[in-house]
Amino acid sequence: MYHRVVSAICVAMLVVSTAPASAQPADALKKAQSAFDQAQMDYLQGNYDKAAQEFQDAYSARQFPQFLYNVGASFHMKAKKEGDEASYEKAVEFYKRYLVEQPEATDRPKVEKAIGVLEGEIKRLKDAAAQPVGSNAGSGVGSGSDLQIGSGGSAQAPQKLPPSQDVQALGDVKVRGLVVVESEPQNATIYLDDRKKGPFATTPWSGSLDGEHKIIIEKRGYQISESTISADPSKLFVLRAVMSQQSNLGWVEISSNVPNSDIYIDDKNQGAVGRTPMSQNISPGKHTFWISAEGYDEYKEDLEIVAGANHTVKAVLKGAPVGKLNVLGIGIEDAQISVDGHVLCERGPCLKGLPQGDHEIFVKRPGYKPYARRVNLQAKTETSIRTTLAPEPSRSDAVIAYILAAGFTGAGIYLGVESNHLRDDLKTDINKGSPPPDSNDPRFLRGKIFAISADAAFGLAGITALTAIYYTFRDKGAPSTGLIDVRALSLVPTVGPDYGGVAMGGHF
Question: Which of 105, 217, 109, 199 is nearest to 496 (CA)?
Fold first, then answer.
């Protein structure tokens, strides 16, 4: 079943000022819109040849690379439906043209994979067509490429081969919608949603967006344009801002020696308005600028803005560059994380910026052995520590040893007291002298036995007490462990013909 587009095509034109726009680009854009509209309709109805031609007409009016992709998609679907070798070749041709004109396309791997599959399908069709009449090789008799001889002996045209499994695996192709942002004058800065993310692109821009976004267009000496659009990847949406000159505003360019520093203007409680480097129009008068970055001292500057003039704020931040420490692991939600003797997070997971250098990390959780580790944190890196805390071992052996020590001590005291009683009785009888105690009196032997037994009990009590103390403080069981992973990351603002944002580089 072929792809069916649910949403209708939306072509919108927004003009945010009454200033006249240049007629030639507007007329070309209207032609592109009209051709795109008709192409989408024909594509929905399965008229792929007409759709391909109309997408080419749209491209002739305005050279947006996405139109070339749509031409390739139209031929791709026709070839898949009809088994047409020439259409496969056309699809490959336009997919390749799309990649040439969109060198930084985010979908390049996917398109290159499709090209490889389609080229393989072209070769398969050519090999099948080259097989002699009656050959059963490849697809088998009647499966696609052999000439069939009817009962009258006349040759029939070969049947079309069904798409290969690889072609089927690519699925049905969706044609691309487009968001176009233009301004008069051109080369205006585009911000997507807010200035905090930094510049998104410059006009004119075309590409793919999805969902609702706030578009801010700004150029020195012109009034700012702010619009909200609801983009859909299956639709064509055009935003054209005609910006009037604004001579009563000043222009400020803000930079710092630490890129991506937060910028605050006049009221810090309102949050950062953007990140360095940034430039914008600003009303005349006295303004206060703060520039800050984690690990650096804050920079502050008061500046008198003059209408029509250019102003610069160049912040020199002093301090130590920072790295990120990320402590995580099973049960970390109940653990406290300390760094250099100070609590960093009352509970995990804990992701914080710290000055570069050596730090003592300590993780503790009730009922578990603590984890301690000294790490060297580097600037512009994220050091992750995935902890595995070992349960605190039972001290029942120490308790038993203490009980035995107490028992032996009690027995020694009892035997000692009994021995002393027998000794005192014998001394009393000896002092009386009538008659003197017999040397064979059993009290002599019993006293000696009690005395020796008392000494033995006290000795055993001392040994078991020492054993109990050892059991109390010994490190029993496996220790808590941590797995360290260091990633060197850099975020670089990146703008392409159909995207904008940041590029991330990693070093593992």
Answer: 105
Q: How far is the C-alpha of 322 from the C-alpha of 377, rounded, in Å?
A: 8
pLDDT digits (tens, 9 = 90+) for 422-463: 888 878 877 777 666 677 778 888 888 888 998 898 999 899
The single residue listed with the structure tokens 């055993």 is 460
What are the Cα distances from residue 278, in Å, to 261, 292, 453?
Answer: 10, 14, 91
Between CA 161 and CA 317 the distance in angstroms is: 68
Question: Who has greater pLDDT, 295 or 49?
Answer: 49
3-state secondary structure of 181: strand
List of residues 6+ apart from 88 with CB closer than 8 A: 75, 76, 79, 118, 121, 122, 125
User: Burial level of 136, CB count in 10 A (0-12/13-18/19+)?
Assistant: exposed
Could you tell me how many residues make up the chain?
508
* pLDDT single digits (tens) 111-128: 999 999 999 999 998 888
Q: What is the pTM of this model?
A: 0.48
β-bridge mates for residue 285, sequence order: 305
What is the per-residue DSSP string for 92-118?
HHHHHHHHHH-TT-TTHHHHHHHHHHH
363 phi, psi to nearest 5 deg: -120, 125
Q: Return the amino acid letter for 437.
A: P
